[in-house]
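Lab channel / #folding
Pinned by the channel admin:
"Please post every new chain as: sequence first, then the structure tokens as a reply. Keep commentary short and put observations after the output so the thread stays searchable."

First post following the new format, from NK:
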Amino acid sequence: MAIPALAFAAAALFCGCHHEMQALSNPYARTGILRMQVECRTSKASITETGDFRLLLSREEDDWTSNYDRVSDIPAELRLVPGIYHAAASSRDTLPAAFDQPIYKGETIFEISAGIVTPVTVKCTLANMKVGINLSERFLSELSDYRVTMTNASSWDDPDVARRTLVWDNEAAAAGKTGYFTVAPLLVKVYGHRFIDGGEAMAEESVSDVEESDYHLVNVDAVVTGQAGITIIIDDSINEKNEDVVVPGWGEAPVDGHQDDGGDNPGGGGNDPSTAPQMFWDANPGFEPTPIESTMDINIVISAPEKIAAFVVTVDSYVLSDIIAQMAGDTQYKYADDGPYDMDLIGNETLVNVLSEMIPTGDALKGQTEVLFPLSQLVPMIQMFAPTPGSEHIFTLKVTDEKGQMLEKSLTFYAR
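Reply from TO:
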């Protein structure tokens, strides 16, 4: 088969819901096969187990639905009649406020066609808000005991406030407990007693700018310069909103010799050392050469604290390089003459649009600090073109952040 013909077939594979064109036997020619996968990315640069998630499948044309209480119970291949389908996955926890209880959700729309195997991935992300506290050394040295209380109820007098409230006391704060709230404005209350005279210390604040996947880190500081106060800094490192709120505190006697130069103020604007990009592959931490299989776990987590500015994947494959070049409209390129092909996943508008349903492209990469980059659909396609046994197919990921720091990592796959 000539390369242009292969390119045409591959382009069809890339579109829609990543249809994997396989001929099915005649008795089933009027149905298609669904291969369902649920993926979940966490903020810790790892993949969360999703076998216990729930999944709801529905078909738009006739209101057909099918509920699966556990994703792990879904057959490897599910035969369905042609149509447009909706898949919604979610984790099992639903409490409005709880420690260590992230809630993940995701959904996608896909099409089942007769005689086609359709792999579909539902990508789940954090659907509630993560909240943590960080107490400065100065705060801890000034207070003998304390409580940081947060709620997403409408007020402290709300009848449902008990179910929607979490309390960090000395023990919970020391243990680094992480709270999770369903999305609603937060009320924050800090209360404690001072070492110096046992007097009460308190402050309150509200946080109204909230969204799914927010990470609110509440830094609490006690400023002692004749008067004391609690400085609450809301640092949202996921959605990258910065909101500083200074809350008046309680009166206190001056501390001899103390000069408040702001040096201990957490989040006070100091310049942290720049952090270079990193890549993680949980299934293959050493990035060892990997045999090409029909089903693969190639989920690369890319961490770029300084934000991604450029992302290029160099494809060194006598099978795929020509095909991808054709999809990008680069008709002059030939692998035999030009060697590996560079996929610019941010700057090449054609590739950004063509590949966006299979891998992150464009705005899903640019400006991001953490990205799950899956090649689990793309690499297995090589098998469809009967590659020469022992041939290597190399994908080199090149990430550059906004400070010009670059990370380059090669993934080698070989045909059996």
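NK: The first helix runs from residue 3 to 14.
TO: also worth noting, The longest strand covers residues 117-126.
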